[in-house]
Amino acid sequence: MHHADLRHATVATPVIQPWDYVAMRRHAAGLTIDQLAAALGGKLFARHLRAIETPGLRFRQIAPLEQVMAFNAAVYRQLADLPPHQHPRLCQRCGWDAHTDQPDGGDGLTTWSHVDDAICTRCAQAAGQ
Questions:
Q1: Is the pLDDT of residue 119 over 80?
Q2: How many angstroms separate the first and last alpha carbons of the chain?
Q3: Of 7, 20, 25, 123, which one has the fewest beta carbons inside 10 Å?
Q4: How far apart are CA 116 and CA 128, in angstroms?
Q5: Per residue in 83-114, is it b (16+ CB within 10 Å) or e — as a string?
Q6: Are both 84 and 108 inside the same structural domain?
Q7: pLDDT confidence of 6, banded at 50, 70, 90?
Q8: Does 11 fall in a domain?
Q9: Is residue 62 assigned to a domain?
Q10: Which residues have C-beta within 8 Å of that of residue 55, sequence separation ≥ 6?
Q11: Quick one: average pLDDT of 32-39?
Q12: 94 and 122 share a domain?
């Protein structure tokens, strides 16, 4: 389990819910629900994906999204099971966490932005920061 790193958080950030996390990671991967469902094995997954992105719903088990995109199932579990003050630190734009390796679009792996510590370097680069 990865815990929130409170040493680096300088401002309060909005709570990211588990359904938000799934949608944020899917959008960051550039996938639609149907594209992700096809990559996971077919149309049956589309219904499941729509359900896990539905506000208010939490699931004990979800599809193996990490096989298709940068996704951390442990983060999903924490968002679903723990109170917000125990949630891991996530990029407020794409849901990236420091324990998930993801290219940053430049010459390295994603890390926290030095300009805005609520977002990752990949999102900062996309925003031109």
A1: yes
A2: 31
A3: 7
A4: 12
A5: eeeebbbbbbbbbbbbebebebeeeeebebbe
A6: no
A7: very low
A8: no
A9: yes
A10: 17, 19
A11: 98
A12: yes
Q: Do the domain assignments include residue 71?
A: yes
Angle at 57 between CA 63 and CA 39, to 5 degrees: 25
Do both 20 and 72 map to the same domain? yes
Q: Are residues 67 and 116 in the same domain?
A: no
**Torsional class of 128: left (φ above 0), alpha (ψ -120 to 50), beta (otherwise):** left
User: Is 7 inside a domain boundary?
Assistant: no
As a three-state string, the secondary structure of 57-99 is CCCCCCCCHHHCCCCCHHHHHHHHHCCHHHCCCCCCCCCCCCC
Collapsing DSSP states into helix, strand and coil, what is residue 120? strand
Q: Is the pLDDT of residue 104 over 80?
A: no
Q: Do 103 and 110 meet the contact criterion of CB atoms below 8 Å apart?
A: yes
